[in-house]
Amino acid sequence: MQNNVYIYIGIMALVTYLMRVLPMTIFRKEIKNKTIRSFLYYVPYVTLTVMTFPAILEATGSVWSGLAALVVGVIIAWKGGSLLVVSVVSCAVVFVIEMFIL
Amino acid sequence: MKRENRQAFKKGVRNGIPIALGYFAVAFALGITAANSGLTAFQATLASLTNNASAGEYAGFTVIAAGAGYLEMVVMQIVANARYLLMSFAMSQKIPQDMKLHHRLFVAFDLTDEIFGISIAEPGKLNPYFSYGAFSVAIPGWSLGTCLGVIMGNVLPLNVVSALSVGLFGMFIAIVVPVTKKNKILLGIVLVSMALSFAFYKIPVFGGISSGTKTIILTVVIALAAAILFPVKEDEKNAE
């Protein structure tokens, strides 16, 4: 049986909202446990990393354009580029490489 | 609306405009992902209007594309959006203690990385109308971008779609890299995450596991190990 897309979207919206609203409304004090705090601190970076790599290598028309986007994106982000700049330049790198080199 | 609330709203709009522009571009790429996952423009726009979460929506669309179970979706959303728990805790210290419940409920609705960033940067306690001002431009930018991404993604030439499909990854890179520059432990953790993620992807034994489940397993294992081995010192976090 095919799962219902609207139920998926409803689950996404509900879970996302609960994570944003519960601490703000219920807990008025900070978490003291150091391990939990550290875990919550590391989670987003690990998640974003494993979602990006190696998926970025398969997202484009060729492994090489994806790899170039990753390398250039990291360099620009390292130099202090904003979210928008890194995002747009990564796209441009893929476009240029696939258009003129490959 | 009271005068000070009107001022806060205006400031929120002003600070929200660059965010909205960035959202529009990134959401456009997200719309292409949504279309590739089999969502219609209406479904993708609905998802963006109700979620306001780049990584969470991207992760959710991969779960939909894989036709995985609802429980996997729940776990995936918890993992992909776990950072909002932390931000919400931080926000609980930033808002006035006596802030009304309905304001708390609304301010939480669009608590994204970027809006969290400008909210925390506001001096003193947060006026909820500042958030509403930022939302008034950020939410349309995000939803409209997603909608157009789904529609235009099918019309655009293949090489343009190919190029735009790295847009979201670019944003993820821009979130992770600056922090690794300041925190060498986190840099090591990110490199280990890349290596293990690549190994999971290459080793045939793990071939049967969906990409969403891989993300969950890797995140929980790596972040937990890191939390035990390298507990974060409070002054490090405050220095950010």
* Low-pLDDT residue spans of chain B: none
Quantity of strands of chain A, as a count: 0
Q: What percentage of residues of chain B falls in helices of 4 or more residues? A: over 70%
The best one-word shape of chain A is extended
Portion of residues within helices of chain A: over 70%
**Proportion in β-strands of chain B:** under 5%
Please describe the biggest sheet of chain A, giving its number of strands, its sense, and whether it closes into a barrel.
none
Query: Span from first to last CA of chain A?
Result: 42 Å
Structural class of the helix and strand makeup of chain A? Answer: mainly alpha
Shape of chain B: globular
The first-to-last residue Cα distance of chain B is 35 Å
Helix count, DSSP H or I runs of 4 or more residues of chain B = 13
Largest interface, counted with CB-CB under 8 A?
A: A-B, 76 and 101 residues
Quote the average pLDDT of chain A. Answer: 89
Tell me what portion of residues of chain A adopts beta-strand conformation: under 5%
